[in-house]
Amino acid sequence: MGKKHKKKVYTTPKKTKHIHKKQSVENFISSFNNLKCEKCNSIMANHDNRIYCGKCCISIFYKSYSEENIY
User: Fold this and answer.
1) What share of the chain is helix, strand, coil (3-state, %, to 5)?
2) What is the pLDDT at residue 68?
3) Which of 11, 14, 53, 70 could form a disulfide with 37 if both were Cys (CB 3.0 to 4.6 A apart)?
4) Interior CA angle at 68 toward 46 and 40, to 5°?
5) Cα distances (angstroms) measured from residue 52 to each of 4, 6, 9
6) Integer Rg of the chain from CA
């Protein structure tokens, strides 16, 4: 029989997991008043420089109001 192997010592630290941000109930309910997507009729997300649809990947930028498909 062979002898036991020495336990490996890792030199890099463990990866930190993503922590979800908590959203207030008032903010969640007010999101139902956001714009609706013209293609899929789902609620669009408000970002600081654009409005984005997560289902069909359409972004409408505030400055130019032009639609672009982002892949």
Assistant:
1) 15, 20, 65
2) 53
3) 53
4) 65
5) 56, 52, 45
6) 23
Provide the CA 6 distance to its chain's centre, in angstroms. Answer: 42
Question: 45 — phi, psi (to 5°)?
Answer: -90, 135
- Containing 31, the helix (H) or strand (E) segment is none
In the chain, the DSSP E strands lie at 45-46, 50-53, 58-61, 67-69
Contacts of 69 (CB under 8 A, 6+ apart): 57, 58
Q: Which two tokens stand for residue 4?
A: 């036991």
Between CA 38 and CA 6 the distance in angstroms is 61
Contacts of 45 (CB under 8 A, 6+ apart): 34, 51, 52, 53, 54
Q: Are 49 and 66 in contact (CB under 8 A)?
A: no
